[in-house]
Design a protein that fits this description.
two-stranded antiparallel ribbon; 4 helices
Amino acid sequence: MEIYSPPVSATKNGKSLDEILKSATFHPSIWGDFFLKYDSDNTKITDAEQEELAKHKEMVREMLSQTPDNSTRKLELIDEIQRWEWDTISKKKLRNP
């Protein structure tokens, strides 16, 4: 089902809306197009980081598998892991802004 809407011609002093918008003069940003062209290298993981990640994953997997499923300790453990993760991320960002 298509809804028909008639074209709206907004004019001011004989100028169309497109002409008004295209004639706007905005001052240039101090950032220029930096963020449009920025390509971060922080997403690349080195082999050493990959090995460390695998080691930590295995350690966490063992800790979770050794804790009974119905235990509140498992929830506490998950909470601690999440806190540790955010702490590590924030420390890394402080070291390498």
